[in-house]
Every structure is written in structure tokens, then in C-alpha cells.
Specification:
This protein is 56% helix and 0% strand. By secondary structure, it is mainly alpha-helical. The chain has 2 domains: 70 residues, no CATH class; 49 residues, no CATH class. The protein is globular and about 60 Å long. It is built from 8 helices and no strands.
């Protein structure tokens, strides 16, 4: 879509996360940290060894972000905006509207309904006749044979992962 995107996410159950995993995730999220971020994370690493107050505060902030869809979307949109504007020489607002969230529940298979709505977006817009032909469609990725997309689609359709060869 030219002015919005849809994403279907499963929020995992909260679980204990070790500090090494939090640091790894930070490194993935910020592969090119600023000088301030680099210096700050070094302080945090030292504090983590001694379980100091700065480390405890950092750990709490990182854990609070995990499992929070609103925080995830804010971060995703911010990171994408920074990259897009830098690489395209743009300034100003990139997103027209705020993020909207819908909790999917129901007796039959609400995930199937929501996934079909998302995958048929390009069809409704008149861009393609088959959702498999839309470049940014998970269904199209699954039909093309991408294993990760096939696993995701099978979880939605069957409720568990198919054994895919």
C-alpha cells in the first residue's frame, strides 16, 4: 500500500530474558549506534556485572518494551522513518496517521479472517487479481516457496506448523 501497511503479529508470552539476550537485541536494533548510545551501553554493561542501579533501570525499560505492541510499532515506524528519510533525502512527517491496533479474538478462526483481509488488500485496491502477485504480501511469499512465510501461513490456516519439505 502506498499510504499504510498491515502487520499481523503474535505477542509471545512473557518469559525471563537474560541480560546477554537483552544486549544482543539492543545490538540488533541499533547496528550503527551513535557515540552517545555506544558510551551509554558500555556503562550499562559495566553496571550489569555489578547489578547496579543504572543496569536495573535499563533492564526494566528493555523488558517493558517486550510484549508491548504499541511500543513495538512506535519503534518500528521511527526506525523505518529515519532510514527512509535519510536514504531518499526527505524531511518532515512520513506517516499520516497513528498506528491502530485490533485485538483478534473469536470462536471460529479469526486469524484466518484477518490474514485474508490483509492479503487481499492489493486485490481490493485493484493492483492485482491474485494476492500472490503482490510483491509485499505474505501469501505471495508463501506461494513462492519462502519457508518462513509458509510456516506463518500454515499456523494461521491449520493452527500449527505443517511439516514443510
Amino acid at each position: 500500500m502506498v499510504n499504510h501497511f498491515h502487520v499481523l503479529v503474535r505477542v509471545p508470552e512473557r518469559r525471563e530474558v537474560v541480560d546477554a539476550d537483552l544486549l544482543h537485541r539492543f545490538g540488533v536494533l541499533y547496528p550503527k549506534p551513535t557515540r552517545y548510545q555506544s558510551a551509554r551501553i558500555e556503562v550499562v554493561k559495566d553496571q550489569l556485572k555489578a547489578n547496579g542501579p543504572e543496569a536495573m533501570a535499563w533492564r526494566q525499560r528493555q523488558l517493558a518494551l517486550m510484549g508491548d505492541v504499541s511500543a513495538f510499532m512506535k519503534l518500528l515506524k521511527q526506525r523505518f522513518s529515519v532510514w527512509f528519510k535519510r536514504s531518499h533525502g526527505r524531511f518532515g512527517t512520513l506517516w499520516a496517521e497513528r498506528f491502530k491496533s485490533v485485538l483478534v479474538e473469536g470462536r471460529r478462526n479469526p486469524l484466518r479472517t484477518i490474514a485474508a483481509y490483509i492479503d487481499l488488500n492489493a486485490v481490493r485496491a485493484g493492483w492485482v487479481e491474485d494476492p500472490a502477485d503482490y510483491r509485499f504480501c505474505g501469501y505471495g511469499e508463501a506461494v513462492a516457496g519462502r519457508l518462513v512465510a509458509r510456516r506463518g501461513l500454515s499456523r494461521i490456516l491449520v493452527g500449527r506448523a505443517w511439516k514443510i519439505v
